[in-house]
Amino acid sequence: MQSVVATGADVGGSSKRSLVRKPRLVEGALELMVKLVALTAIASILLILVFVGKEALPLFTSAEVHREVTPASLFAATAAGHIWQPVAEHPKYDILPLLAGSLKVTLISLVLAVPLSVGAAIFVAEYAPRRARELLKPAIELLAGVPSVVIGFFALVVLAGWVQRVFGTATRLNALVAGIGLSFAICPIVFTIAEDALRAVPGSYRTAATALGSTPSQTLVRVILPAAVPGIAAAIVLGFGRAVGETMIVLLASGNAALFDANVGHSTRTITATIAAELGEVVVGSPHYHVLFALGALLFIATFGVNFIGERIVAGMRRRLTGTS
Amino acid sequence: MNARLFGVFGLVLGIATACTRDNPTGTGTTTGADKKSFTLKGSDTMVILGQRWAETYMKQNAGVTIQVTGGGSGVGIAALINGTTDICEASRPMTDKEKDDVKAKRTTPVVEVKVALDALAVYVNDKNALQEISLPQLAGIYKGEIKSWKELAGPDKPIVLYGRENSSGTYGYFKEHVLKNKDFAAAVQTMAGTAALANAIEKDESGIGYGGIGYVKGIRALKVKKDDASPAIAPTMETAQDGTYPIARFLYFYTAGESTGTQKKFIDWVLSDDGQKVINDVGYYPLPKK
Question: Could you give the ipTM of this predicted complex?
Answer without folding.
Answer: 0.70
